[in-house]
Design brief:
CATH class of one domain: Mainly Beta
Mean pLDDT: 82
CATH superfamily of one domain: Trypsin-like serine proteases
Number of helices: 7
Radius of gyration: 31 Å
Oligomer: single chain
Shape: globular
Order of helices and strands: HEHEEEHEEEEEEEEEHEEHEHEEHEEE
Number of strands: 21
Largest sheet: 7 strands, antiparallel
Low-confidence stretches: 21-38, 54-71, 403-410
Helix content: 10-25%
Strand content: 25-35%
CATH topology of one domain: Thrombin, subunit H
C-alpha cells in the first residue's frame, strides 16, 4: 500500500513538472514574436494591405521519389537547344527597309569665333544623321542630337528625292525627335517591332549613313539589354536611358537609324557608341519610342509626371536592415515635403516595389514609369515597409521641365 502511494506521488510530481515546462515554453515563444525596437511599420491612413501569397497546403501531392538505380530524368536545361541560324543573306531585310530609311542633313548657325576679323560673321555647321519613316505622310523618327539647334533640315529618301523637314516634337531626356517632311505623301513606313521580345544573342541589322556613306548595312547580335546612363558616359544626367547594346557597327552618321530584327521590324534607334571601344553600340528601345510618339506629335514635347521622392538602389546592407527578401524595388531616401508621396503617406525607408500594377526592379524603372503616367493622374503605388506590403493612391505632380536640371524628384 505504501509502495502504491509512493508511485502515485511520483506520477503527480511528473505531471506538475510537465505542466511547468509547457508554461515556460509558451511564455518564451510569445516573447520571441514581439517586434524589436526601430521605426514603426504602421500603415498610413487609406493604405490597402497586400496579402502575401499563401503556401501550398500540406496535403498537396508531390512528385514521386526517384528509385535508386533509375536513370535521371532530363531537365529543361539538358533539353536540346533550338538554335536559330543566321540567314544565308541579310539582303531581303535591307531591301525591304531601304525605302523607309532616310538621310537627314542639317545646318546649324554657330556663334562667330572670337577676334576682330570674325566680328558680325556667323558660321554655319553642317550635320548628317539618319531617320526612318513611320507614317505615309512623312513622319520620321530620329535622335534629338541629330536635329538639335538646326536652322535648316533636309530629308533625303533612298531614291534621292529631297524634302524640307520641320521638327514636330523632341525630347532631349530620351534623345528622341520627330521630323515632319513637308510636301511628302504616299511614303513607305517601316514596321515597328517589340523591343521587349528580342533576346540577348538574337541577330540584329543596323542601317544608316556612317561617315556619309549612305544606306550602309551592318549586322551583329544583341549583346545586352538594360544599359543605363552609368554604362554610357557623357549623357544628360537627368535623362531616361535603357539602351540595347549591339556589336553591329554603329558609327557617326548612323545616329537615328533603325536597328532591325530578322523580321525587318524596328526594335531600336541607333543612338550612341562607346568611345575608344570596338563593336559596342547602343540603341534606344522602340517600345520607349512608341510610348512617347503620340505625345510628341500632339504636344511637341513631353510633360512628365512625378511622385515626389528621392530614390536609390537597394544595396545588400539596406535590404537586410529593411527586412527585404531581395534587392528589387526603389529605396525611398527622402520625400518632398507636401508633395504627392508625402500626402499619400509614403515615408523614407519605404521600398516602392510596384507602380500601376507593374513590378519595379530598380530606381531607373520607377523613374520611367512615373514620368510617363500623366500629370494629375492618380496611380496605385505598392510599398514594402518592413515586413508589411500595402498600396496607396498617389496623385502625381509635374516634373520640372528643364532638361538641363538634374532632378532627384522622380
Amino acid at each position: 500500500m505504501a509502495r502504491a502511494h509512493q508511485v502515485s506521488r511520483s506520477f503527480a510530481l511528473l505531471l506538475l513538472l510537465a505542466a511547468l515546462f509547457a508554461l515556460a515554453s509558451g511564455c518564451k515563444g510569445k516573447r520571441g514574436e514581439a517586434g524589436g525596437a526601430g521605426r514603426s511599420d504602421e500603415l498610413p491612413p487609406g493604405a490597402t494591405p497586400v496579402t502575401a501569397p499563401t503556401a501550398a497546403p500540406q496535403g498537396a501531392p508531390t512528385a514521386p521519389a526517384q528509385e535508386l538505380g533509375d536513370a535521371p530524368k532530363p531537365s529543361a536545361s539538358s533539353a536540346p537547344l533550338a538554335v536559330q541560324l543566321a540567314p544565308v543573306s541579310f539582303s531581303p531585310i535591307a531591301k525591304r527597309a531601304d525605302p523607309s530609311v532616310v538621310a537627314i542633313y542639317t545646318e546649324t548657325e554657330e556663334a562667330p569665333a572670337p577676334g576682330p576679323a570674325a566680328r558680325g560673321r556667323r558660321r554655319t555647321a553642317k550635320g548628317l544623321g539618319t531617320g526612318f519613316i513611320v507614317e505615309r505622310s512623312g513622319v520620321v523618327i530620329t535622335n534629338n542630337h541629330v536635329i538639335e539647334g538646326a536652322a535648316e533640315i533636309v530629308v533625303q529618301l533612298s531614291d534621292e528625292r529631297r524634302f524640307p523637314g520641320k521638327v514636330a516634337g523632341r525630347d532631349p531626356r530620351t534623345d528622341i525627335a520627330v521630323v515632319k517632311m513637308e510636301g511628302a505623301r504616299d511614303l513607305v513606313p517601316i514596321p515597328l517591332g517589340d523591343s521587349d521580345a528580342i533576346d540577348v544573342g538574337d541577330w540584329v541589322v543596323a542601317i544608316g549613313n556612317p561617315f556619309g556613306l549612305s544606306h550602309t548595312v551592318s549586322a551583329g547580335i544583341l549583346s545586352a539589354k538594360g544599359r543605363t546612363r552609368e554604362d554610357v558616359k557623357g549623357l544628360d544626367p537627368s535623362g531616361y536611358f535603357n539602351f540595347l547594346q549591339t556589336d553591329a557597327s554603329i558609327n557617326p552618321g548612323n545616329s537615328g537609324g533603325p536597328l532591325l530584327n530578322l523580321r525587318g521590324e524596328v526594335v531600336g534607334i541607333n543612338a550612341a557608341v562607346r568611345a575608344n571601344a570596338n563593336s559596342i553600340g547602343f540603341a534606344i528601345p522602340i517600345n520607349m519610342v512608341k510610348q512617347l510618339l503620340p505625345m510628341l506629335l500632339r504636344d511637341g514635347k513631353i510633360r512628365r509626371s512625378a511622385i515626389g521622392v528621392t530614390v536609390d538602389v537597394l544595396n545588400a546592407v539596406e535590404a537586410g536592415r529593411l527586412k527585404r527578401p531581395d534587392r528589387k524595388g526603389a529605396w525611398v531616401k527622402s520625400v518632398l515635403s507636401g508633395g504627392p508621396a508625402d500626402r499619400a503617406g509614403i515615408a523614407p525607408d519605404d521600398v516602392i516595389v510596384a507602380f500601376e500594377g507593374k513590378n519595379v526592379s530598380d530606381p531607373n524603372e520607377l523613374r520611367w514609369l512615373a514620368s510617363i503616367a500623366g500629370v494629375n493622374k492618380t496611380a496605385p503605388v505598392r510599398i514594402a515597409r518592413g515586413e508589411r506590403v500595402f498600396e496607396v493612391e498617389v496623385k502625381l505632380g509635374e516634373l520640372a521641365p528643364d532638361p538641363g536640371q538634374e532632378s532627384e524628384d522622380r
